[in-house]
Design a protein that fits this description.
It contains 15 helices and 13 strands. It is of the alpha/beta class. The chain folds into two domains: about 200 residues, 3-Layer(aba) Sandwich (Rossmann fold), CATH 3.40.50; about 180 residues, CDP-glycerol glycerophosphotransferase, C-terminal domain (Rossmann fold). The strands form two sheets. Strands 9-10-8-7-11-12-13 form a seven-stranded mixed β-sheet, with helices on both faces. The chain has a six-stranded parallel β-sheet with strand order 2-1-3-4-5-6, sandwiched between helices. Strand 3, helix 4 and strand 4 form a beta-alpha-beta unit. The longest helix has 22 residues. The protein is globular, with a radius of gyration of 22 Å. The protein starts with a helix and ends with a helix.
């Protein structure tokens, strides 16, 4: 690991011998086209017409190749501005760079612990790896989705809270802004067609069904490797015979079987459809420790937390928000409790979730793209000032 870090720094130093280029680089290990970057790009092009916008992202999550790593190092060494949406070693491992680096984290908040919060747990990185590869170093600023996440982000990135700006994310504009209605409608319609086509294969398409979107977070080191299968089976069993259907929006790294099944309740697993584009189909969104809960809140969904493995999750990676403690009215260890609310046997406590959203979001709304772009504009102004002094 130490050898890899030294080689990365050597390559970076060699690339830094070349002049900076008038380019803005978007780097990601999360996906090929992160939604927040897609939404931000037109505003970047409008504000910075003299800069080239370069994408340097994985083809799909978890598929970092050596050529891509080298390209990312080159771009970080020669760009004026770099945006990242997660931990990118090409940014963090080198000791210093000339460009401005802004971390636009890929989640609105931090329900589960991550980064430096979860070191040396089964679900986290080792202290040695974090130290050697300088995890989350090199950021000039961090954009946090919500004000309620600033303290957690400060711990997770191991940086001062004053370097974290709770500006919202472009996806908030995507859900709320009238200006993005055409884009939103196209994507929602495409997602809806995919879901209905899949449900039709088990006779559960059309009206008359109560749709539950199940969107759990990814388990990196869960003791039960078949946890998703067990969770889906238990939800289907609890919802059996209730005119409910289950739409599983798993994490891209989950072993989610694509297709339609009947497990007592019609269930569909979809690949290649963003969870955010399925929210409009939901009568209820069921999650656990995923920040999709915040997206669902902005989308006006009714949210429930299903946390059968919470005792394990409290230990690794740990929790910033414990659903059973902070939202006991809408959080359940057993699937029967979820089914009771979904079917109306137990009333849904909308006030509990609305209060949680109010505490977390604290006034964040439409305008995130503009707010973030304002910050980037100021960052590029600093680069130009340095160039003039050089």
């Amino acid at each position: 690991m130490e050898l890899v870090a030294c080689l990365m720094r050597l390559v970076f130093r060699l690339c830094s011998l070349f002049p900076q280029q008038r380019k803005i680089v978007l780097l990601s290990r999360q996906s090929a086209r992160p939604l927040d970057f897609v939404l931000l790009e037109p505003e970047l092009a409008r504000r910075f017409p003299d800069r080239r916008i370069v994408w340097s992202c994985v083809t799909s999550i978890g598929e970092m190749s050596l050529p891509l790593m080298l390209f990312q190092i080159w771009h970080v060494a020669t760009a004026e501005l770099c945006l990242v949406d997660g931990y990118v070693p090409a940014v963090s491992t080198p000791y210093a760079h000339r460009c401005v680096v802004v971390q636009v984290w890929h989640a609105l908040g931090a329900i589960k612990r991550f980064g430096y919060q979860s070191l040396d747990t089964p679900a986290g990185r080792s202290s040695r790896a974090a130290r050697t590869l300088r995890m989350h170093r090199g950021y000039d600023l961090v954009v946090a989705g919500l004000p309620g996440a600033v303290a957690s982000f400060s711990e997770a990135f191991d940086i001062p809270a004053e370097k974290i700006l709770p500006l919202g994310l472009p996806r908030v504009d995507y859900l709320l802004s009238p200006d993005l209605e055409p884009t939103r409608s196209r994507r929602f319609a495409r997602a809806g067609r995919a879901a209905e086509a899949a449900f039709s294969r088990v006779g559960a398409a059309g009206d008359g069904w109560r749709t539950v979107v199940y969107a759990p977070t990814f388990r990196k080191a869960n003791a039960d490797s078949r946890w998703l299968e067990h969770a889906v089976t238990s939800l289907c069993s609890a919802l059996a015979g209730t005119s409910s259907r289950l739409l599983v929006a798993g994490h891209p790294l989950d072993d989610l079987p694509e297709g339609a099944f009947d497990l007592g309740t019609p269930v569909v697993g979809l690949r290649g459809v963003a969870t955010i584009d399925l929210l409009h189909l939901a009568d209820f969104v069921v999650t656990d420790y995923s920040t999709v809960a915040f997206e669902a809140g902005f989308a006006g969904c009714r949210v429930l937390f299903f946390v059968p493995d919470i005792d394990e999750y409290r230990l690794s990676p740990g929790l910033n928000v414990d659903p059973l403690v902070e939202l006991p009215e809408i959080s359940f260890v057993d699937a029967a409790g979820v089914a009771g609310v979904v079917t109306g046997t137990t009333p849904y406590d909308a006030e509990a979730f609305e209060s949680f959203m109010a505490r977390s979001a604290q006034g964040v709304g439409v305008g995130a793209i503009e707010r973030i772009s304002d910050v980037l504009e100021r960052g590029l102004s600093r680069v130009e000032a340095r160039e003039e002094m050089a």
